[in-house]
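Moderator note: this is an archived Q&A kept for reference. The question asked for a predicted structure of one protein chain; the sequence and the answer are reproduced below.
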Amino acid sequence: QVQLVESGGGLVQAGDSLSVSCAASGAIDSSYVMGWLRQPPGKEREFVAAIRRTGGTDYLDSVKGRFTISRDNTKNTVYLQMNSLKPEDTGVYYCAADLDVQWGNIRSRWSSDGMLYWGKGTLVTVSS
């Protein structure tokens, strides 16, 4: 059994920074791709960012240059540093994990809720 537990969400103002983290436990190791999705209010869940064990990354276009994903393979933990936050970044942020062989289509796979594992989410609210 795999558990992904997110932490670090909260309420911030536009322009502020916030970091969320996700700790993975159970039958999962550092070979897995880890990352984040988010679900804005009233909208579908969308891909945000993903990172491979080796450090390769992919980002949603609208967060490039503002968000940075990183991971600590020794702790099976993934982080998302969010800077210059905008009200449209508001949503529930979900941690996700998947097999590395899925990297080539990870964005489309996760955008259709095809990730292998996901957490319960943490709420990020950005006020204007």
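Archived answer notes: The longest strand covers residues 18-26.
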